[in-house]
Amino acid sequence: MTDNRSVGLVVPQRARFDQPISLRSGAVLPGFELVYETYGELNADRSNAVLVCHALSGSHHVAGVHADGSTGWWDNLVGPGKPLDTNRFFVVGVNNLGGCYGSTGPMSVNPATGKLYGADFPVVTVEDWVAVQARLADRLGIHCWAAVLGGSLGGMQALEWTLQFPDRIRHALVIASAPHLSAQNIAFNEVARQAILTDPDFHGGHYYEHDVVPARGLRLARMMGHITYLSDDQMAEKFGRQLRDGKLKFNYEVDFQIESYLRYQGDKFTTYFDANTYLITTKALDYFDPAGAYGGDLQAALSRAKADFFVASFTTDWRFSPERSREIVYALLHNGLDVSYAEIDCPHGHDSFLLDDSQYHAVVGAYFDRIET
Amino acid sequence: MTEIFGRFDFDVIARWIRPQERVLDLGCGDGSLLKFLAAERGVHGYGVDNDPGNVLACVRNGVNVLQFDLERGLQGFEDDSFDHVIMSLSLQTVRHTEGVIREMLRVGHEAVVSFPNFGYRGHREAISQGHMPVSEALPYQWYESPNVRFFTIADFESLCAGKGIEIREGLFFDEGREVTIDPNLNAELALYRLGRRA
Q: Mapping DSSP to helix (H, G, I), strand (E, B) and coil, where does residue B174 land?
């Protein structure tokens, strides 16, 4: 069955960069590789390129299908005739540095030792990712993105683009994101990290050498993450107090459907995601704070930005609440930048940004329609 | 709601706006006033509306729109951050009339408001016949009206007098024609330019 609103079969590409890169931590990587995908055609004056940035568990596989049948994580948004229309735009998805989907990361060989990096892979930040994405843009001949788009941690990257490269981005779409994490958010990340770090199979991050993975820790981290991605109401509606097997068991097996759901999500995650990448990514989230260098003054931090903005949040998202998006909006207003803000009434919590709510997709599509190419 | 009167109230508002101003339009609807002011005066404008359909329409119109609930006030907007804060035909749809005007004059140097005059001759006739008025200015049946405050030109002016709100200019209209004699009786629509009393 062919979906005529899908970009269809896609094959990831790989780019090698031999120039060393200095990271925010002070560490230097001698070189790196990025895995990426593109959809649509770059136009003659290279003015229709859109970068899609992924969040915690995402990848370069944004849209279309791979030969193994896996569908891109934002396929409902990106494709011919979809809100980010690949008939008009040339869309790029890239696996970030430190990732576990093929870009250089903890599972890559450390040229200094000949062994896998593991825990020796440096902590990378949102700033580092954007610097790396800029090198990919150079390689693809894209001087200025028509837009950079992302949700959650991806939205932080879109925001960072406007600060690090104000002349290389015309529009930033910052969705279900925040100008920095709250203490509560950092707390969730710390519990997730502790689950991984204290797993006996973690081996100080060098578990590959022991042919094991810290699955228990990664599973717990993912289970907790899922709780925070859903809203209380939606969890009540979807699971309530439903029992999986119709009766209480008076033991510690699965009684409630919600337990079954979390265990399933946790187990599934450990089969495809790397614990070291999870650790790095949560640190990137925790460290992002463009106002930090300005004494906490977000208005001053955003004064470098020149892009037009679209900011969106979801009413039931308590992990990245609407209030956090409004902080960004007010700081943009202070700087006289063009900004539109949509607060989408959607029941699915933080996960809403990945779903195809009709108002959400209509307004994102309308925003893209106004972007000149 | 700005489409009810076509463009003549837009023209009046545009006369009060200098080129390149920063303008905030509260209850901006589909953004057509801001689009008009951008074309006529080159304003840098933002609209505020809490209706999802209006937010979508503004984005389609290429107008900056912020989906905020006006009942929560303008907290977050800085003092004196706009030249004009406009509320075109929406003042009667908010509950905290005085608070909204006060906030408009905190955020803007001047405020521009327009509203249907409940004291208009035709409306008085409807009431005298025992029914709530339905007219070009008040086009809704009472049970489906978005309006929550019903007031006359005289009511509005006494509110301003009592609350330190300076009326810098007022213009009154009936079917698109300016009214100068007894506007509280003869005008269907009132437009005001307001400031903080020194």
A: strand
| Dihedral sign from CA coordinates of A245, A249, A254, A258 | positive
Q: Considering only alpha carbons, which residue of chain B is nearest residue A361? A: B56
Residue B1 pairs in a beta bridge with none
Give the residue from B133, B117, B92, B113 showing the smallest Cα distance to B173.
B117
Distance CA(B66)–CA(B82), nearest Å, equals: 15
**Is A323 part of the contact surface with chain B (CB cutoff 8 Å)?**
no
What pLDDT digit, counting tens, does each position of A157-212 carry?
Answer: 999 999 999 999 999 999 999 999 999 999 999 999 999 999 999 999 999 999 99
B13–chain A nearest CA distance, Å: 22
Backbone angles phi, psi at B189, to 5 degrees: -135, 140
> For residue A175, what are the β-bridge partners?
A151, A312
Closest CA to A45 of A148, A146, A169: A146
Of the pLDDT bands very low, low, confident and very high (cuts 50, 70, 90), residue B111 is: very high
* pLDDT tens track for A126-157: 999 999 999 999 999 999 999 999 999 999 99
d(CA A200, CA A67): 36
Are the beta carbons of A125 and A150 closer than 8 angstroms?
no
**Given A334, A341, A367, which is nearest B78 (Cβ)?**
A334
Q: CA-to-CA distance for B171 and A125, rounded, in angstroms?
A: 57
Nearest CA to A331 out of A294, A287, A300, A290 is that of: A300
Q: How far is CA A339 from CA A113, A153, B44, in A?
A: 48, 20, 11
**DSSP for A56-119, written as a single string:** TT--S--SSB-TT-PBPTTTTTEETTSSEETTT-EEEEEPPTT-SSSSSSTTSB-TTTSSB-GG
Residues of chain A with C-beta less than 8 angstroms from the C-beta of B81: 333-334
Q: Who among A336, A342, A366 is closest to B67 (CB)? A: A342
Question: Hey, are the CB atoms on A333 and B65 less than 8 Å from each other?
Answer: no
Can you give the pLDDT at residue B3? 45
HSE-CB for A131 with a 13 A CA cutoff: 13
Q: What is the pLDDT of residues A29-87, one digit of tens each?
A: 999 999 999 999 999 999 999 999 999 999 999 999 999 999 999 999 999 999 999 99
Do residue A369 and residue B60 have CB atoms under 8 angstroms apart? yes
Asked if A350 is an active-site residue, the reply is yes
ipTM entry: 0.95
* Alpha-carbon span A84 to A362, nearest angstrom: 10
> Inter-chain contact B52–A341, Cβ cutoff 8 Å?
no
The C-alpha atoms of residue A55 and residue B17 are separated, in whole angstroms, by: 44
The shortest C-alpha distance from A80 to chain B (Å) reads 19
Gap between the Cα atoms of A295 and A42, Å rounded:
41
pLDDT score, position B4: 47
Say which of A54, A231, A350, A357 is annotated catalytic. A350
Helix (H, G, I), strand (E, B) or coil at B23: strand
B68/A363 Cβ within 8 A? no
Instruction: Calculate the average pLDDT of chain B.
Output: 93
Beta bridge partners of residue B110, listed in sequence order? B84
pTM score, whole prediction: 0.95
